[in-house]
Amino acid sequence: MRNLLKIKWLALFVVCSASAQQEKGIIGASNWLNNWTEFKPAKTEYNETNQILYGKITTNTTLYKKNTYLLQGPVYVTNNAVLTIEAGTVIKGDYETSGALVIAKGSQLVANGTETDPIVFTSNRPSKKEGDWGGIVILGDAPINKFGGTSSINFELDPTQTIYGGTNPQSTSGVIRFLRVEFAGKKIKGYKDYNAISLAGVGNKTVIENVMCSFAAGNAFEILGGDLSLKNMVTLRSKGDDIRITQGAQCKIDNSLTVRHSYYSSSTRARCMNVSSYDKKEEADFSKNLTNVVATNCTLVNSTTDLAADLASGLVKECIFVADNTSFSLKKSVISGFSPAVILDDDIKPEAGGLKKIKFEEMYFNNCKGNIFVENTTNNEDLEDYYGNSAFYNLYENTPNAEMFIDSNKATGTPDFRVKIGKITASK
What we know:
Layout: H1 2-21, E1 51-53, E2 56-57, E3 61-63, E4 68-71, E5 74-77, E6 82-85, E7 90-93, E8 100-103, E9 108-112, E10 119-123, E11 136-139, E12 151-152, E13 163-164, E14 174-182, E15 197-200, E16 207-214, E17 221-224, E18 227-236, E19 243-246, E20 250-254, E21 257-260, E22 273-275, E23 292-296, E24 299-302, H2 307-312, E25 320-322, E26 327-331, E27 334-336, E28 342-344, E29 358-361, E30 364-366, E31 372-374, H3 381-387, E32 395-397, H4 401-404, E33 405-407, E34 416-419, H5 421-427
Parallel strand pairs: 1-4, 2-5, 3-6, 4-7, 5-8, 6-9, 7-10, 8-11, 9-14, 10-14, 11-15, 14-16, 15-17, 16-18, 17-19, 18-20, 18-21, 19-22, 20-23, 21-24, 22-25, 23-26, 24-27, 25-28, 26-29, 27-30, 28-31, 30-32
Antiparallel strand pairs: 12-13, 33-34
Keywords: Signal
Protein name: T9SS C-terminal target domain-containing protein
InterPro entries: Pectin_lyase_fold/virulence (IPR011050)
């Protein structure tokens, strides 16, 4: 009996230790980045293409792992068709024709990869670079807050196939699991640049889990309206924003990782999260939802190897931007290595109750040159006092990434960005 009790106490200690280790930032009993992610995609070789996709897909279609596909120009899935992609399938976007995949409103993408057999969208060039091809565009009929309730994506695409928005927040655009998008974000002269994945008016019956966007020239994820949940998202070295959310999106983000680098950010102040309620105030219908984002257990990290030098050179920017007329909550998360951690729109007036809808709770602010500022101000004492109140349980530390995370600099294999238990304990 005594030995049995010892075993039970030991098991309880292991469970509690694992829980404490993952109190803030991404969580998991093991490193859930293993197997399906790729942190050095330029060195990964894939089979030569043997099937070409072009034009419109108007009937239910399946892509098979045994083939390697080429997206030649924009490929539209339309007419309420379902495109199913088998686990382990590789699809390449054509550089010359700006290959892209567009899931029109009413159609679905069922890309159900597995941890050991992810689906991969990548470049068809021998030497891959960010912006080699377009990206994935998914359009739904969930609400947006633009006047008229609908809008259109403008990437030099067929305007009749790129309409999004509607009245059905519970609609589905399919299932996306264990999928990687590499080197997307083609710049189209005279038009809006592609994102790796655009989610426009996507409804909450759509499943989006374990998706990685790496080396995007535009934004990694752009969310335009809709009502959706994202879980286990990963972004790596995007030149644009890692996650941009606007047009009244109702969005939940859970257990997700963004890894930026000082030398990969564009000159347009790209951030890990860029949250607003509209692109142009005059286009917003204020009778409809404003953007509401709730993010939990996220790790937002600048992976530069010489943070002090990059700070001195002005290469490091803010991690998060929150615009006026927006609700934003970030909880149990880590922000490490930015200048500063957060900037709030200068239309937000803290003294007039402007912080009621902007919450930072149980946070770990690490190695940031300043924490939370209002735009175009240098004195943030009031904000530091407000969010530093013990009721928010926020922690502040200056620890190198190599010491803070279990293994953020793994030379081979998959890094582990879970926070070491000792760092949380020491901060308390």
